[in-house]
Amino acid sequence: MANKRVLVIDDDNGIREIIQVSLEVVAGWEVITAASGREGLVKAQNEQPDLIILDFMMPDLDGQATFRQLQANVATQHIPTIFLTAKEVYYEEDDLINSGVTGIIHKPFDPPELVRQIQKFLHWQD
């Protein structure tokens, strides 16, 4: 599984670092980070990760707007995307999944559980 590349798009430096360390140490995945939706769009197109973990609430270009742009771009629309959110979006989850989102993970999260949830969403084996 060490060959997996994950792009983490989150405006919170601490969250990005926790996710990066968790995925690198627990799963052995390569992690690329972006601090904004706009930066994430560029990195997604240039880096072609195996997965995008996308913060739901960000200033300027929020997670939903970023996801719509990822889906509109033929170069990035195939990349599975998991939303990471502290917001209670349970009422929107079916709509998000129906729009093509691979999964939703709620903050706060347990780092080892984060890896298990990602593996479950994507059917990636240990």
Automatic annotation (TrEMBL):
SMART domains (alphabetical): REC
Family annotation (InterPro entries): Bact_response_regulator, CheY-like_superfamily, Sig_transdc_resp-reg_receiver
PTM sites of type 4-aspartylphosphate: 55
One GO process term, biological-process aspect: phosphorelay signal transduction system
Domain Response regulatory: 5-122
Highest rank taxon of the organism: Bacteria
Alphabetized UniProt keyword annotations: Phosphoprotein
Pfam families: Response_reg
CDD domains recorded: REC_RR468-like
PANTHER family registered for this protein in UniProt: CHEY SUBFAMILY, STRESS RESPONSE REGULATOR PROTEIN 1
Name recorded for this polypeptide: Response regulator receiver protein
Source species: Gloeothece verrucosa (strain PCC 7822)
Organism taxonomic ancestry: Bacteria, Bacillati, Cyanobacteriota, Cyanophyceae, Oscillatoriophycideae
